[in-house]
Write a structure and sequence with these properties.
single chain, 99 residues, mainly alpha, 2 domains, 4 helices, 80% helix, 0% strand
Length: 99
């Protein structure tokens, strides 16, 4: 087992998920029920499956697409998603702030 890679993946995912919409969804679900274990197990299983899909697809795609192109495409996708989220939140923010 490559422990350095393990802890790198753990730390990156842990930091990326803090305050993420996934965590907020789990927070909301857990406030609606007095039983936290089904929410914890369901969210954990979903994260495991999504992570497996990411690892599987990443491994598959990296066999056909050069890594620098993957990094560039991922960066562009993150920027595009950020712009989309920012644009969708501006009307919502106008309720609370006068521009």
């Amino acid at each position: 087992m490559d422990w350095k890679l393990f802890f790198t993946a753990f730390c990156m995912l842990f930091l990326a998920e803090l305050g993420d919409k996934t965590q907020l969804a789990v927070f909301t679900l857990s406030t609606q029920s007095s039983r936290f274990m089904p929410v914890f197990l369901g969210a954990s299983a979903a994260l495991v499956v999504v992570t497996f899909i990411g690892v599987f697809l990443g491994r598959f795609v990296s066999n056909y697409v050069p890594i620098p192109i993957l990094h560039t495409a991922a960066g562009i996708l993150f920027v595009v998603m950020g712009i989309i989220i920012l644009k969708s939140s501006i009307p919502e923010l106008s309720k609370y702030f006068r521009w």
